[in-house]
């Protein structure tokens, strides 16, 4: 995908977010007692939300200009510091060319597109001896979670991801959210999936109990 195509995809994501905010506004207005509001009240609500949308769109464009939305390889230690200074939140994958790191790459590539508020990058540990020693990087893959230029937390190997390379993107997403390096609106996708499965299981059990009652009659 060329640069223009990537930019178009990311701009579409911004528009999607803006549309979602507008729909939320309509929901809020729908829940209000419209009979007790006049046109000025409704106009003020819309104007306030419009300003929020403009502010959000400007923030998204700023993130895109910094390289957010893409998972990029940092070629040098010097650029690592530039990235850490430029973005408020950064996930940096210290890697080598092996299977576990490629597994992590796959999931981070997906999350980079889903969480524009955070910069996702990777740097080859063996070519970054100063950083690796300073940050005490021993196990690969290791994710350094950077907030406001300081390393706030680490995800080391797969120990916190079930101890297997078969973890899901949603599980990694939840782990990153736990450190508040990414922003969640509500439940994670993994939590929603588990809730749905639990709900379906309850429905099945209730249906089974109903069948038993009918047969006893």
Question: Termini, distance in Å?
Answer: 65 Å
Task: Give the full name of the CATH homologous superfamily of the domain at 72-184.
Answer: Glutaredoxin
- CATH T-level fold name of the domain at 72-184: Glutaredoxin
- Strand ordering within the main sheet: 1-3-2-4-5
Shape: elongated
CATH class bucket of the domain at 72-184: Alpha Beta
Mean pLDDT: 82
Provide the CATH architecture of the domain at 72-184: 3-Layer(aba) Sandwich
Give the low-pLDDT segments: 212-217
Number of strands: 5
Report on this model:
The chain is α/β, with parallel strands linked by helices and 217 residues long. The chain is built from 7 helices and 5 strands, in the order H-H-E-H-E-H-E-H-E-E-H-H. It has helices spanning 3-31, 39-66, 77-86, 99-114, 129-134, 169-178, 189-216, and strands spanning 71-73, 89-95, 119-124, 142-147, 150-156. The chain has a 5-stranded mixed beta sheet. Strand 4 (142-147) and strand 5 (150-156) form a beta hairpin. The longest helix has 29 residues, at 3-31. Residues 80-160 form the Thioredoxin domain. InterPro entries: Thioredoxin-like_sf, Thioredoxin_domain.
């Amino acid at each position: 995908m060329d640069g223009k195509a990537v930019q178009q995809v990311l701009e579409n994501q911004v528009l999607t977010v803006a549309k979602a905010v507008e729909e939320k506004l309509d929901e809020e207005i729908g829940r209000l007692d419209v009979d007790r509001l006049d046109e000025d009240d409704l106009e003020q609500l819309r104007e306030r939300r419009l300003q929020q949308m403009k502010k959000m769109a400007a923030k998204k464009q700023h993130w895109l200009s910094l390289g957010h939305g893409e998972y990029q390889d940092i070629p040098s230690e010097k650029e690592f510091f530039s990235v850490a200074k430029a973005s408020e939140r950064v996930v940096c994958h210290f890697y080598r060319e092996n299977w576990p790191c490629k597994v992590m790459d796959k999931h981070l590539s997906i999350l980079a597109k889903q969480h524009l508020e955070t910069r996702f990058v990777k740097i080859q540990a063996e070519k970054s001896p100063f950083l690796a020693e300073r940050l005490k990087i021993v196990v690969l893959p290791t994710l350094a979670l950077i907030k406001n230029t300081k390393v706030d937390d680490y995800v080391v190997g797969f120990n916190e991801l079930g101890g297997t390379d078969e973890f899901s993107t949603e599980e990694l997403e939840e782990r990153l959210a736990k450190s508040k390096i990414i922003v969640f609106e509500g439940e994670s996708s993994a939590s929603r999936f588990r809730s749905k499965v639990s709900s379906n299981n309850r429905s099945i059990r209730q249906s089974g109990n109903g069948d038993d009652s009918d047969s006893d009659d």
